[in-house]
Amino acid sequence: MKKEEEKPSIAKLVKEYIETKPCIRELMILGIVNYSALARFIEGEFKKKGIKASTGAIKMALIRLGEELSEERSGFEKAIKNVISKTVIQLQSDLVVITARRDIVLSKIKELVEVAKDSRFFQLTQGIETFTIAMANEEKEKILELLKGGIIDVQEGQTAILLISPLAIINTPGIVAFITTALAVNGINITQIISCYKDTILLVDRRNAPSAYTILEDLIIKMREL
């Protein structure tokens, strides 16, 4: 006899629903959500999908989930604080970012390595069909000549913010999200993000660089004071 498929619990259904609603999830972590109102809303959403669940059961599942998320966040925040507080920040200005076809870059890889050897800043990132090169502006003409016929995009006036972190960054989740959120809420757009072992490199428009640097430097200082 075929075993009847087990139905997911209300707690599991509620958790899956909340995971698709990051804003509500954040409010639960902060403890500023009205669980009764949220439970009634979710009950209505479940009904649309043919899922039967009482408001009370949903509310209890939400409360337990909120407690779990808060504990989880507390552990993450301690780990993030430990990494950010030991991070050193540097700046590299007057950069250009060039995106070129993969085949063209690969055909000139030896020449590119020679340019990289003497460049004050050179980062090569491979995508599926393209390579992106972030480099010192003084190398721009050499690269444009090397990769002519394969250039897809050129972004000038870029600045790199280098974050040099302790080894713990490799196994600490949420560091990049924490950093990028701090910039995003202040209206700073990131052109490129590059990760290289313990280094996190953020490329921004030079006009935003002073603000971005100050935001991240202040963040590091605050983490050291906590």
TrEMBL record:
It comes from Pyrococcus furiosus (strain ATCC 43587 / DSM 3638 / JCM 8422 / Vc1). It comes from the Archaea. Residues 164-226 form the ACT domain. PROSITE patterns: ACT. InterPro entries: ACT-like_dom_sf, ACT_dom, CASTOR_ACT_dom, UCP014439_ACT. Pfam families: ACT_7 (PF13840). This is ACT domain-containing protein.
